[in-house]
Sequence to fold (157 residues):
Amino acid sequence: MTESAQLYRLLYVSENRIEGGVADVAAEIERILASSRRNNDAFDITGALIFNCGFFAQVLEGPRDHVERIFEAIRQDRRHGKIQVMSAAEVESRQFPNWAMAYIGRSPSWEKALGWIRTDTHFAPDERCDRLFKIVMEMAYDAELSPDRTFAASGKS
Ligand SMILES: Cc1cc2nc3c(=O)[nH]c(=O)nc-3n(C[C@H](O)[C@H](O)[C@H](O)COP(=O)(O)O)c2cc1C
Fold:
C-alpha cells in the first residue's frame, strides 16, 4: 500500500472496563496488543495506545477505510466503554510510522499529565484534542527514547 492512499488519523479516549487486579488488566492488555499487532500490520495501520488513570487513549492512522473498519471492531469491544472520538481527520503523514501499536502504560508523571481527561473529555473543544494528541505523541516518543520505562511496544515487522 502506498502512502498516496487517503491517510486518516483518529484519536479517541475511553474508560477501562477490564475487571480484576493489576495482573488481570496487564494480561488483557497483552491480548489487545497481540490482536493489534496482527490486524494493524495487515491493514497498514499504525498508532499508539495509552492506558492510564483507568482510561485508554488511542491513535489509529492509516488508509481511511481501514481505520474505520478497525475502529468499528474496537467500538464493540466490551473491555472499554464511553468511547469518545476526540478527532478524526485526513492527514498528510503518519506520526507513528514505525509502530503497529505502540503501548504506553502507567507512569506517575503521565498519570498527572493525563489526569485532566477524567473530568474534561465530556466537553472536548479542539484545544483539548490538540493537547491530548500532543501528550500521546510525547509519551510515545519519550517511551521510544527510554526503553527501560514501563513500555511495551509492538513495532512494525
Ligand atoms: C482499548 C482497545 C484498543 C484496541 N485496539 C485495537 C487495535 O488497534 N487493533 C485491533 O485489531 N484491535 C484492537 N483492539 C481489539 C479489538 O477490539 C478486537 O478485540 C480485535 O480486533 C479482534 O481481533 P482478533 O479476533 O484478531 O483478536 C482494541 C481493544 C481495546 C479495548
